[in-house]
Write a structure and sequence with these properties.
- InterPro entries: ADH-like_C (IPR013149), ADH-like_N (IPR013154), ER (IPR020843), GroES-like_sf (IPR011032), NAD(P)-bd_dom_sf (IPR036291), Quin_OxRdtase/zeta-crystal_CS (IPR002364), Zn-ADH-like_protein (IPR051397).
- The chain is of the alpha/beta class.
- Helix 9 links the parallel strand 12 and strand 13.
- It is globular, with a radius of gyration of 20 Å.
């Protein structure tokens, strides 16, 4: 089969090479799937660089999130059979940027029928993260104001849609007019271009001085630091990631005097600690997708030869929505 493999660590465009390798074989609790779509995620970038907490042995195939058609099942895989269309995480080193990949049956769920292969491939990580973050960790309520950083990105665009579905007023912070247009199309009530506007002042004005009840921050750095200046009394800043590359130092005295909460989210832990909640969340997301309330924003659909270049654009911050390889 054809696969993109990383033989030496570095930037995706240099580290990834096209190769022909044997198809992987599923072991106990695993599925072999024909890849229908594979969504690019920032962990794929970090693994190429050797800077992620998971460090597969070289060579490996990146691509941690897929939509696939079940081809074969290993032992102890109840409830799934050949031909099922599924989504979920891959089992490295046999990732999704290949014609076939391995998946962990325990964390694999049915692909929502209303989404095409690219959209289904992009649903699992981003929308599960958004749902757990907004509902389980931040306890977002109808009528509250939600501030989403990187609102036109893969994680942020999911949070915008989920916030709207929850009945919140959504403010999206983006970088540039193209991303502003994308966030507007997602239904954000206010769009702030950080290149030309001060989002702190814009949030204060939009909320009449109240501030944002929930801040959804996958960026870190200055985005986090500035958010502390416009979070509401008893607001919640949800720390989702550090795509900006800077992990901020938190002055806890500021949280004390303003009465706001700093809430962390590592969604992957729920897959191990509370898999029933993950499946319940998937059922809820499937209903929202069927009702037309959520639909992954797929900014680029890649052919196989373009995978490394597409992942590099994600690494460079030059993408809108999700970048997804789609099988022919």
């Amino acid at each position: 089969m054809r696969a993109w493999q990383v033989h030496e660590l570095g930037e995706p465009a240099q580290a990834m090479r096209l190769a022909r390798v044997p198809a992987p074989r599923p072991r106990m609790g695993e599925l072999l799937v024909r890849v229908l779509g594979a969504a690019a995620n920032f962990p794929d970038v970090l693994m190429c660089r050797g800077r992620y907490q998971v460090r597969p042995a070289l060579p490996f195939t990146p691509g941690v999130e897929v939509c696939g058609e079940v081809v074969a099942c290993g032992t102890e895989v109840p409830g799934l059979r050949a031909g099922d269309r599924v989504i979920g995480a891959t089992v490295l080193p046999a990732g999704g940027f290949a014609e076939y990949a391995l998946m962990d049956a325990a964390t694999t769920v049915p692909a929502p029928p209303g989404l095409d292969d690219a959209e289904a491939a992009a649903l699992h990580f981003g929308y599960q993260t958004g749902w757990f973050g907004l509902h389980r960790r931040a306890r977002l309520l109808p009528g509250e104001t939600l501030l989403v950083h990187a609102a036109a990105g893969g994680v942020g665009s999911a949070a915008v849609q989920l916030g709207r579905a929850a009945g919140a007023r959504v403010i999206g912070v983006v970088g540039g007019p193209e991303k502003a247009a994308a966030a507007r199309a997602l239904g954000a009530d206010l769009i702030i271009d950080r290149h030309t506007e001060d989002f702190v002042e814009a949030v204060r004005e939009f909320t009449g001085g109240h501030g944002a009840d929930v801040v959804y921050d996958p960026v870190g750095g200055a985005a986090y630091q500035r958010s502390t200046k416009c979070v509401a009394f008893e607001g919640r800043i949800l720390v989702v990631g550090f795509a900006g590359g800077d992990i901020p130092s938190v002055p806890l005295n500021h949280a004390l005097i303003k009465n706001y909460s700093i809430v962390g989210l590592h969604w992957g832990l729920y897959q191990r600690r509370d898999p029933a909640a993950v499946r319940q969340c998937h059922d809820e997301l499937t209903k929202l997708a069927a009702a037309g309330l959520i639909r992954p924003l797929v900014g680029e659909r890649l052919d196989f030869e373009s995978v490394a270049a597409g992942l590099q654009r994600l690494a460079d911050g030059r993408t809108i929505g999700r970048v997804v390889y789609v099988a022919p």
